[in-house]
C-alpha cells in the first residue's frame, strides 16, 4: 500500500505517494494535465514490487498547493527540488502527456539525474494550433488557472525546449498511442530523432495508454527499465 506524504519545494507543498523498496533504481511517475498521482495506482503497485516508486501531484493538481504561478518549467524545477528533498541522486522518470513534457525538461536540465526516461504520448515541444480550453462544470481536482497557463505554453513552447532534447543522456522509450491519439505521429518522430538514445514504439490505445491497457503498458515499461 502506498504512503501519502507531502514535501515543501520552492515554497510549494507537493503531495506524493510512495511505495515499494529494493535495490533497483527509484522511479518517479508524473501525471498528465488535470490528473493526479492516484492516476498511476496500478502502474505504481506493479513497478513497486522490486523498487521504490514515487508518484507526484504536480503543482496545481490533486492535494498539492495551488500557487499563483504555473508553467512546465516551474514544474520541472519542482521535480528537481523533490529529488533533492528526498535525497534521490538518480532516478528513472515516467511521464504521461504534460508529465512527459516535464520529464524531458528535467532530463535536459540535469541529464545526470535521469537513468531511463519513458514518455507516454507526450507532445514534442513544437508550436501547434491552439483552441481555448473549456472549463468542466463543478468542482475541479486541479486549478483551472493552471490549465490556462500551461496550455498556452504547450501551444507555443520555448524553442529552447526542442534544442534541449539533444542534451538528454538517458536511454529513452517514446510510447505513441497510435492513430486514435489526438497528437500527431510526427510529434513522436521528432522527439525520437532529437534524443540521442531513444526508440519509439506504438501501443495503439489512444492518449490514455496506461489506463486503457495497464498490464501491457506496465510490462512494457518494466521490461525497458530492467533491460
Automatic annotation (TrEMBL):
Organism: Streptomyces sp. R33
Biological processes, Gene Ontology terms: acylglycerol catabolic process
Domain of life: Bacteria
A Pfam family recorded for this sequence: Abhydrolase_1
Gene3D superfamilies in alphabetical order: alpha/beta hydrolase (3.40.50.1820)
Keyword Transmembrane helix: no
Swiss-Prot/TrEMBL keywords: Hydrolase
Gene Ontology CC: one annotated term: membrane
Name recorded for this polypeptide: Alpha/beta fold hydrolase
Amino acid at each position: 500500500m502506498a504512503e501519502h506524504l507531502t514535501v515543501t519545494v520552492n515554497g510549494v507543498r507537493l503531495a506524493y505517494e510512495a511505495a515499494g523498496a529494493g535495490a533497483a533504481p527509484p522511479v518517479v511517475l508524473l501525471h498528465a494535465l488535470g490528473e493526479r498521482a492516484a492516476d498511476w495506482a496500478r502502474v505504481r503497485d506493479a513497478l513497486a514490487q522490486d523498487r521504490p516508486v514515487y508518484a507526484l501531484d504536480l503543482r496545481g493538481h490533486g492535494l498539492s498547493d495551488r500557487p499563483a504561478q504555473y508553467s512546465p518549467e516551474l514544474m520541472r524545477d519542482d521535480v528537481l527540488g523533490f529529488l533533492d528533498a528526498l535525497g534521490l541522486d538518480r532516478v528513472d522518470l515516467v511521464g504521461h502527456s504534460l508529465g512527459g513534457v516535464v520529464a524531458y525538461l528535467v532530463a535536459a536540465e540535469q541529464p545526470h539525474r535521469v537513468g531511463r526516461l519513458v514518455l507516454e504520448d507526450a507532445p514534442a515541444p513544437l508550436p501547434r494550433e491552439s483552441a481555448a480550453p473549456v472549463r468542466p462544470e463543478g468542482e475541479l481536482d486541479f486549478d483551472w488557472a493552471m490549465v490556462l497557463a500551461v496550455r498556452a505554453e504547450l501551444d507555443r513552447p520555448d524553442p529552447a525546449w526542442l534544442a534541449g532534447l539533444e542534451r538528454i543522456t538517458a536511454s529513452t522509450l517514446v510510447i505513441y498511442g497510435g492513430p486514435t491519439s489526438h497528437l500527431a505521429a510526427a510529434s513522436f518522430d521528432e522527439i525520437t530523432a532529437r534524443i540521442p538514445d531513444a526508440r519509439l514504439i506504438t501501443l495503439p490505445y489512444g492518449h490514455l495508454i496506461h489506463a486503457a491497457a495497464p498490464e501491457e503498458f506496465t510490462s512494457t515499461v518494466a521490461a525497458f527499465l530492467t533491460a
